[in-house]
Amino acid sequence: MTSPDRQQRIAALRDTISDIERKPALAEARQRVEVEDGSFPKFAGGLLQEIFTDDRRNTGAGLGFALAQMRGLLTASRIAVVYLQLADEAQKLGMPYGPGLAHFGLDPNAMVLVRPANMGELLWAAEEAIACRAVAGVVADIAGHQKLLDFTASRRLSMRAASAGSSMFLLRYGTQRQSSAAQLRWHLLPTRSGRKQYDDRAPGPARWQVRLERGSLLRQHAEWVLGWTENGFSNFTPRPSPPVRPAAPLSRAVSVQLAHRLSEAG
């Protein structure tokens, strides 16, 4: 039985080897990353990305983040998006909503839903979908720790994506991170919502903080606040939290009245 320290060293070594093997592909991909005025960059196809959220209830944010990038990868020849999810996870994580996709500018007819019975079938379907030249990208919604999704499996997905030119997005949950060959690893966190028209105190459109945890394609601008609009996502400046005003101290004891006028203190 290997010790935790040995397992960590092995994981670090795998990451180092993966970076060395990906170096030519990363150098080519970096030339196609567009960053303008601190806005969220536009990535070319052929990348494996991991998108982590701390809780399953944030699955919509992770999916929206992946699909917003996917919109820019759809072309006249690459017309499809493949969404993979284990058959028994739909009740827990939900499924993409057609009218919602249309509202955010993605044709629901372009999405192919695949619900494999187990993780082995999901990984097989992912590799086959990535290799299809009509596919712009693949989204795999994966909850919990999956033993089969190890470093070797992620490396196969990364190499297949780089070879075919289509992108792979892994939606993951929780705070633990396993070793993988993904070129980019994102962490999505909820943040203060946008302003509500006519009522600044009411919650407005949802916004998310996107933090780059790992990736050699970017050297700066590693954190953004994004909001989902009908044109994909847009950058926003974080809203400052309202100042907390301490209550004025009371000069004397004040009676607290409970129901039926029963005095609690006085």
Protein traits:
29% helix, 6 helices, Rossmann fold, nine-stranded mixed sheet, alpha/beta, globular, 266 residues, single chain
Number of domains: 1
Terminal CA distance reads 66 Å
Order of helices and strands: HEHEHHEHEHEEEEE
Biggest sheet statistics = 9 strands, mixed
Fraction of residues in helix: 25-40%
* CATH level-four homologous superfamily name: P-loop containing nucleotide triphosphate hydrolases
Radius of gyration: 23 Å
Low-confidence stretches: 23-32
- Tally the helices: what do you get? 6
What does this structure look like?
There is one protein chain. With 266 residues, this protein is α/β, with parallel strands linked by helices. It has a single domain, classed as 3-Layer(aba) Sandwich (Rossmann fold). Helices cover 29% and strands 22% of the residues. The chain has 6 helices and 9 strands. The protein has helices at residues 4-30, 59-71, 90-93, 98-103, 119-131, 151-164; strands at residues 48-53, 80-85, 111-114, 135-141, 167-173, 184-191, 207-215, 223-229, 232-236. Strands 3-2-4-5-1-6-7-8-9 form a 9-stranded mixed beta sheet. Strand 7 and strand 8 form a beta hairpin. The longest helix has 27 residues, at 4-30. The protein starts with a helix and ends in a 30-residue tail after the last strand. Mean pLDDT is 80; it is low at 23-32.
Summarize the structure.
With 266 residues, this protein is of the alpha/beta class. It is built from 6 helices and 9 strands; from the N terminus they run αβαβααβαβαβββββ.
Write the layout of secondary structure elements.
Blueprint: H1 4-30, E1 48-53, H2 59-71, E2 80-85, H3 90-93, H4 98-103, E3 111-114, H5 119-131, E4 135-141, H6 151-164, E5 167-173, E6 184-191, E7 207-215, E8 223-229, E9 232-236
Parallel strand pairs: 1-5, 1-6, 2-3, 2-4, 4-5
Antiparallel strand pairs: 6-7, 7-8, 8-9
Helix pairs in contact: 5-6
